[in-house]
Amino acid sequence: MGRVRVSAAGQLIAAGLTPAAVFAATHMRADADLWGQLPFGLDTLQTWSLPADDPYSFTQDTPWINHEWLSELQMGLAWTAGGTAGLALLKGSLTFAAFLLIWTALRQVHPGARLAILAVVVFGTVHMWSSLRPQLWTFVSVAVLCRILAGGSAKARRWLPVLFAVWTNNHGGWIVGIGVLAVWAAAKVIVEREPFREWAMVTLLSILATLVTPYGWTLWEFVLRTVRLERAIAEWQPLWAAHPINWVPWLLAVAAGVWAVFRMPAHRFAAVTVLAMLACASLQVQRLESIFVTAAAIL
User: Fold this and answer.
1) Any idea what DSSP says for residue 101?
2) Rounded CA gap, 136 and 26, in Å?
3) In this predicted structure, what is the pLDDT of residue 5?
4) Are the beta carbons of 145 and 294 closer than 8 angstroms?
5) What pLDDT is recorded for position 141?
6) Cα 179 from Cα 246, distance rounded (Å)
């Protein structure tokens, strides 16, 4: 098989995307949450224990579940090792890993379309990679999850419980990940008649893996108590309340789902079902748009 030649237009696009990708990976923006997440990680690094309350809040008299302790510990290690440069390197590594997972998932796509898809992903996931926050770990984890599901390898699926055990200690986005896995598994069993036992086992083990935290089942209780669509947080507002430019990646991801209905031979129903779920969810909570765009590019 001959090597695919990239057109002059494709080379120009690549030349433009390369510095954009480097900027996306290494650019550091001072997010307001960093003031808390970094000290939490440094405290854990110093004491090697998790505090039972938030020492920097007026709610010090109430029990506290730090569901992002592992990502904050990594921030503390990065800061200890290299200060601001260490944080930039950590952010760059996570961002680059996510983009690389998406890019390599598109290896069979025409070079021009591949570059265009990556450009949409870079734009559509800007809320995740623009600053160093625990949601970056969800960005990488969603890409890994979708790569494993799209790959169709039963051997690779055995690593999903490990993924969820790590993911749960880094960021609360694992909740969406469990939803993606459950919907994908149900579609595979009901429509494509794949073995129920295998999918039930990997899904159950992945759910149980979310208990592998310092908090055990109380983390589930915390999630049920705190995760609400009506919370007055800007990123949790409906997508239609955002600036119209935020609709562009969502619409393109929806178009990818429609394309899959007619053109994609493998995993068609499972992919469309997952993307439909994420499309509806991201309409209700705009911060989920980045997850939707990532899943659409890979699945």
Assistant:
1) H
2) 13
3) 52
4) no
5) 98
6) 24
Range with lowest mean pLDDT among 118-122, 213-217, 222-226, 268-272: 222-226
Phi, psi (rounded to 5 degrees) for 85:
-65, -35
DSSP 228-278: -TT---GGGS-GGGS-GGGHHHHHHHHHHHHHHHHH--SSHHHHHHHHHHH
Q: Tens of pLDDT along 199-243?
A: 999 999 999 999 999 999 999 988 888 776 555 566 667 887 777
pLDDT of residue 114: 87
Residue type at 21 in one-letter notation: A
Helix H or strand E encompassing 136: helix 135-151
What string of H, E and C letters represents the secondary structure of 167-184?
Answer: HHHHCCCHHHHHHHHHHH
- Both tokens of residue 152? 């169709």
Amino acid 233: pLDDT: 62
Q: What are phi and psi of 61, to 5 degrees?
A: -90, 5
Are 61 and 53 in contact, with CB atoms under 8 Å apart? yes
What pTM was computed for the model?
Answer: 0.88
Q: Give φ, ψ of 32 to 5 degrees.
A: -65, -30
46 within 8 A of 55, measured Cβ to Cβ: no
Which amino acid is present at 141? S
Residues 42 and 51: beta-carbon distance below 8 Å: no
Cα–Cα distance for residue pair 95/246, rounded to 1 Å: 20
Cβ neighbours, 10 Å, residue 62: 10
Residue 200 CB partners (closer than 8 Å, separation 6+): 185, 189
Give the number of other CB atoms < 10 A from CB of residue 6. 16
Q: At a CB cut-off of 8 Å and minimum separation 6, what does 145 contact?
A: 160, 163, 177, 180, 181
CA distances from residue 68 to 37, 50, 142, 250, 252 in whole angstroms, order as listed: 8, 11, 16, 27, 31
